[in-house]
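Justification of resources, computational component.

The compute hours requested in this renewal are based largely on the per-chain cost of generating structure records like the one below. Each record pairs the submitted sequence with a full structure-token output. That output is archived, and it is also reused by downstream analysis tasks.
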Amino acid sequence: MQPQKVLIVDDEPDVELLFRQRFRKELREGIMTFDFAFSADIALEYLKGLNPFDVVLLLSDINMPGMNGLELVRHVKKDFPLLKVIMVTAYGDEANHMAALGYGADDFITKPVDFTFLKERMAALAKG
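The structure output for this chain reads:
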């Protein structure tokens, strides 16, 4: 079985260690792989260099320097409409939630992240 490739976009480098710890079992068993982009611009360049079906899920923070996560989801859904996107943010206010969904985000999760819930949402989105 091919592992699910997930791209995580966040300007905080410690997010990589956190996700690798919380998904240790899934990574070890080859269920999924992670790639990390520390800006929205890097994420878009990364996606443009891939086969469109290589990445099955994108997790993005909203508040980042330069292009923010809301702008990123708008670009992603225009250029990669089948890619599933979950916004993961500390800014869980209604305006950000509605904007993210309006731009095409498939889900919206607030920090601190409940990783059990996140894993359930990721599995549900991966199934289609």
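The longest strand covers residues 4-9. The chain has a mean pLDDT of 93.
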